[in-house]
Amino acid sequence: MKHNKTNGASMLSALMALFVTLGVGFSPLPAAADWTVNGNIVTFTDQVGFSPDGAAYSGTVSLRMESVVISGQFKIITTILGIVPAPGFGYVIKKSGGVDGVVEIEFASATCQSKFSFLYKPGLTKIDYGVMRCR
Predict the structure, then answer these.
(1) CA distances to 61, 65, 108 from 80, in Å
(2) Do 116 and 126 meet the contact criterion of CB atoms below 8 Å apart?
(3) For residues 23 and 106, what is the distance between their CA atoms, to the nearest angstrom?
(4) Residue 47: beta bridge partners?
(5) Distance between CA atoms of 59 and 87, rounded to whole angstroms?
């Protein structure tokens, strides 16, 4: 059976919507996380790097994941859409995603730091929101 790109993209979009609806393949997330599905594109936005008491955070991260077929295999291209550090924080992008790639962002202020890590690929989603550590 031969598939063209349109049918593959439509099928993938339907699967992604079903997975989001059923919660399949997604880690439990804080209530503030914003997941949006539009065809074969999923966006994620949330605050990350919370203090142990949950009163403060290091920044807000927005990511875009696009499902594609490369050489007959499903892949996900992850792109950083935006990073907004909390007041007093800066950030460094250690890994920027890409095809089935990890996003790693380190946040730091004069006295605190945290590390956010995100991996979203077919069959696996791992999110480490990071814990703010202060001296």
Answers:
(1) 8, 9, 19
(2) no
(3) 28
(4) 60
(5) 8
pLDDT by 10s per residue, the chain, length 135: 343 344 444 444 444 443 444 343 433 334 468 999 999 999 999 999 999 999 999 999 999 999 999 999 999 999 999 999 999 999 999 999 999 999 999 999 999 999 999 999 988 999 999 999 999
Rounded distance, CA 28 to CA 49, Å?
Answer: 16
0.85 cut: is pTM over it?
A: no
Q: Are strands 59-70 and 73-85 parallel, antiparallel or unpaired?
A: antiparallel
**Domain residue limits at 113:** 5-134
| Domain count of the fold of the chain | 1
